[in-house]
Design goal:
Number of helices: 3
Structural class: alpha/beta
Strand content: 35-45%
Order of helices and strands: EHEEEHEHEEE
Shape: globular
Helix content: 25-40%
Length: 135
């Protein structure tokens, strides 16, 4: 079998802030931007790579209850609902760029005992983004 990761989903609470972060700050290209009923689903991805991230409105699935919507909102606000892992060949340079741009840094780049150097930031919706670099 030949299986590849095509995409992933991350919730976003502010489409314009999500675009400013993923497109303008991280340099991802916008591959799709679809509006429906006052909401937006934005697909972004790193240039030259086939994998995409769909930034979607949270808790709009028809089977989600109001209590579940509330919990999802609370978890997003704390940064515990969703996350993604990126890699970079220049972790320190990337974190310097993120800090200068005002991104919320959760963990400065740190050498880990399992052979990676990594750090963490949050996007404007609170999603945890871990970024690693092999040492």
């Amino acid at each position: 079998m030949d299986i590849a990761i095509h995409g992933s989903f991350l919730p976003q609470t502010d489409p314009d802030a999500a675009l400013a972060f993923y497109r303008d700050l991280l340099g991802f290209e916008v591959r799709n931007d679809v509006g429906y009923d006052g909401m937006r689903w934005i697909t972004v991805g790193p240039p030259g790579q086939p994998v995409s991230i769909v930034l979607h409105p949270p808790a709009v699935d028809p089977g989600i209850t109001e209590d579940e919507r509330r919990v999802i909102g609370e978890m997003m606000a704390k940064g515990t609902y969703a996350g993604i892992l990126f890699s970079s060949d220049d972790l320190d340079g990337l974190f310097k760029h993120l800090q200068e741009s005002g991104a919320e840094v959760i963990q400065e780049p740190t050498d880990q005992p399992y052979g990676l150097r990594d750090g963490a930031v949050r996007d404007p919706s609170g999603n945890l983004i871990r970024i690693q670099q092999r040492v």
